[in-house]
Each structure stands twice: as structure tokens, then as C-alpha cells.
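Give me the fold.
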Amino acid sequence: VLFSEYSENITPEHWIKIAQKLDSLAKSDYKGILVAHGTDTMQYTAAFLSFALAGFPKPIVLVGSQRSSDRPSSDAALNLVGATKFIVKSSTNGVFVAMHNSENDDDTACHLGTRVRKNHTSKRNAFETVGAKPAFVMSGDTMTRNFSGSYYNQKEYTPKIALDSKVALVKYHPGYDPKLIENLLSQGYKAIIFEGTGLGHIGKSMYDLVKRAKQENIFLGMTSQCMDGRVNMSIYESGRDLMHFGVIPLSDMISEIALVKAMWILGTDAKNIENIMLKKIASEFRE
């Protein structure tokens, strides 16, 4: 037991400790490793482990429950059993989140750790792969594989366990006060991930602060508030303006995953953040 916390209390410093423990097991004889984790922030932890432990030679599966084990409707046992069977049967590596695939107790979905979101507050199948089917589904002892690619963009295990949490995730909305961005700059933030509207837009009231942030060498990335699809900032004039100001479109990367990836890059290779944010490390872009 590394620590016992509600997952809303998990911080990036906890991610480091988890990654260090996992790294110590990279050359072990274990078939794979289960990480018990609360569901509220499980996708953030999964993302950091995916980047920090790129190339890890065996599967890492985060598993939790939407309903605690003292409740008759608990999903804890089935999720744990399904995650274990997945590790035993799969011949893959990568970081996964294993949770219920439906409201029934029939099967367990194993989602890619960089393509998953918690999309419901209480349903047992709250976790979903964005834009695709779950990578694997365990139904009893039968495994269905929907993911045919390679999780990592590299075969060699090259852990880089570090981060810098001076990254902000900004959800733009009508009436957003640009002075909030000014506050981020004064606080020494080094990257901003915008969760923009539609194809990747923020209002023109933000433009002056965006230009100032770029002049101060702040990385500016754009994701979308939409649940699916890709950012495409070249279609409308406003998107083209933002790209001209230095905002980088991040394709279909999930906003929370982009946040974690930027933290990781700032801690490991900050000078190359723009190139690495656009490079596939651990299946953060849809195939």
C-alpha cells in the first residue's frame, strides 16, 4: 500500500510515487501489475503512467469500483477479476483502465489509459473509450480485442519519471474573463491547454492575452469541449487567427490527457514541448 486516499486528493506527487514503484517491478517475473485506484481521477493517473513509463514491458491495469464493496450492487469484485484475467490472457503492454462494460455483470472493459474518460457520475460502466470501442473486453474467460495497434510508439523501455505541474487547463465559455489568463502568467505557469468550443475556438476577447502568453514563451495547446472528434482550426477565420498567434491544435487528444502530457514534458524535456505534444507517445491520438 503506497497510500490510502480518495482519488480526488491524489496529486501529481502521488503519480511520481506510483510510477517509481512500478518502475522497480519492470524486470520482475510478474505477468502484469494491477493498481487499485479511486475512480474520480483514475484517467489522470493512467495518463501520467503511460507517458512516464513509455515502453513498460508488461501490462499495467488501473482498476476501481463505482460502488463500494459493502453494497449489494458493487462492481469491485468483477472489475478486479476481469482485470486479472485480462493480464493473464493478453500478450500486450501498456496502461489500461478496467471497469464494467455495461450496467450488467457480464463483462469488463479494458480501456487505453490515454483514450478513456469517466463519463457518468454513478453508473458502473461510467468509463468509456472516447471515439472507439474499448481496447479489450473480457467476457468470462473470453477476450475480445478491438485495438490492433501498438500502445507505445517505441519498443524500448525508457522511463522518464518527472513532471512540472505549472500547466493550466482552461475551459473557455462565453463571458470568460481574460484577466484569469493574466493571473496564470503572473503565477509562473509554463503551459496552457485550452478546452475550446467546437473545432477549437476561443473568443476574440482572449486574443491580446494569447499573444502576450506566446511572447512569454508559454506553450498554448487547443483541445475541444466536444465529446468526440478532432480539433481543426484551419476552417474558420477565428481558428486561423489563433494558430497565427501561436496556439497549437492538438488533434483529438482528450483535454485532461493533454494537461498531463504537458506536465510530463515540462518535467522531462521542456524545450521540445511543442514537438513532443504533437508526437504519439502512448496512443494519446486515435489511430
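The CA atoms of residues 152 and 167 lie 24 Å apart.
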